[in-house]
Design a protein that fits this description.
Layout: E1 5-10, H1 13-28, E2 32-38, H2 50-56, E3 59-63, H3 72-93, E4 97-101, H4 105-116, E5 121-124, H5 133-144, E6 147-150, H6 153-161, E7 169-171, H7 178-181, H8 188-195, E8 203-207, H9 218-232, E9 235-239, H10 247-254, E10 263-266, H11 271-280, E11 283-286, H12 289-293, H13 295-298, E12 302-305, E13 318-321, H14 325-337, H15 339-346, H16 357-368
Parallel strand pairs: 1-2, 1-4, 2-3, 4-5, 5-6, 6-7, 8-9, 8-11, 9-10, 11-12, 12-13
Helix pairs in contact: 1-16, 3-4, 4-5, 9-10, 9-14
Length: about 375
């Protein structure tokens, strides 16, 4: 007989890939797991990532919430639609707990719905400080949540400062690195064959997302990033930005670089393939949290650009630069050719845990919340 019912809300490739092992552990522990799919998963232009969710779990409901615009206003309006649609789904499903991860609008919508419906909300990944609107969304999710699964002691202290109940705040590590510790990603030869990569040459992996606080200058910033890649002239894989305000601006600019033979652009790369790319990459460039959280576990040098991740706790694999072409190029050369830095990055310690997050979360749920 199944234990009580948990609903997990997933909105994108990012949260689902990172939370996969947690969800699998919950399911294998005989909880009733229901999945609500929403946001970027439902947009074909971002790779139709709902298919990855369908392969792994049965989907209980779909909530279409993203408007077609790519402005700050359309983000806010989409959030309103998300609250309505997710609340209706939760009212129908009637779970004993809602689980959300990270700092996206759909997760906040789920936390708000659960709080109003008197359903406990568990939040994975609270307490971070990055440096953008994500901080405000993440902190709001913390405030609306009842149970807090955080990455480390620093995050635990911060969620408690925001009002989290200390007896329901648990340090479990970041789920992001569990697949890496389990080596659950594709090996170098398969990755090289799939993406047409020469393993004897440097590989640059680029992931650059819009910073909504800097919406008016996003197109200028994107050109600086991609022009630096063009001037470096090395084999490069670039992934699409997320669906935040300004994402379509970046995509429009990015399309101008598809004609160059050493640059490959992908709307979406499944998580296990992406980890396989991180495993063989020479340097990661951009402003993705993957560079801060996952990359240290590979010893992968990262050129972190701009303000999006400026306040996150870091390992020694990071070179922080402003969004300036010359600075980016110089930092990439350090990441590739400075032997002292390469050695330091390779041997860095990841501050986000040991890859046993799912085991800890399920043990806590069984012991404290969802028996009977």
């Amino acid at each position: 007989m199944k234990h009580r019912k948990i609903v997990y809300i997933t909105g994108s490739r990012a949260d689902f890939g990172r939370c996969y092992y947690v969800l699998k552990a919950i399911y294998d522990a005989d909880f009733k797991l229901d999945i609500i799919v929403t946001s970027m998963h439902l947009l074909p232009e971002f790779g139709g990532t709902i298919k990855e969710v369908e392969k792994a779990f049965e989907i209980e409901d779909r909530v279409d919430m993203l408007l077609s615009g790519s402005t700050c206003g359309s983000m806010a309006k989409s959030f309103g639609l998300g609250i309505i649609g997710i609340t209706q789904s939760i009212e129908r499903i009637k779970p004993e707990m809602i689980m959300v991860l990270g700092d996206r609008g759909e997760m906040l919508a789920g936390a708000i719905a659960g709080s109003h419906l008197n359903i406990p909300v568990s939040h994975i990944g609270g307490g971070y400080i990055s440096g953008s609107i994500d901080d405000r969304i993440r902190d709001a999710i913390t405030i609306f949540s009842d149970i807090h699964f955080v990455a480390n002691e620093k995050c635990a202290r911060r969620v408690k400062m925001l009002g989290a109940n200390p007896s329901k705040t648990y340090i479990v590590g970041a789920p992001d690195i569990e697949a890496i510790k389990k080596k659950d990603f594709f090996p170098p030869r398969e990755v090289a064959q799939k993406f047409n990569i020469d393993l004897n040459k440097p590989l640059i992996l680029v992931a650059y997302h819009p910073v909504t606080d800097e919406y008016e200058s996003i197109d200028i910033q994107a050109r600086e990033v991609y022009q630096s890649i063009l001037e470096l002239g090395m084999q490069t894989i670039i992934t699409y930005p997320n669906a935040d305000a300004g994402g379509k601006k970046i995509i429009k600019i990015l399309e101008n670089y598809s004609k160059h033979p050493f640059i490959a652009i992908y709307r979406h790369i499944p998580y296990k393939w992406y980890l396989g790319l991180m495993n063989i990459a020479s340097v990661m460039v951009g402003n993705s949290s993957a560079g801060i959280i996952e990359a240290p576990s590979f010893g992968l040098p990262v050129v972190n650009i701009g303000s999006r991740q400026r306040n996150r706790e870091r390992a020694e694999n990071i070179i922080d630069v402003e969004c300036d072409k010359k600075s980016i190029i110089n930092a990439v050369k350090v990441a590739l050719y400075d032997n002292d830095f390469v050695r330091k990055a390779k041997n860095c310690k990841n501050p986000y845990g040991d890859g046993r997050t799912s085991e800890r979360i399920v043990r806590i749920l069984k012991k404290n919340f969802l028996k009977g």
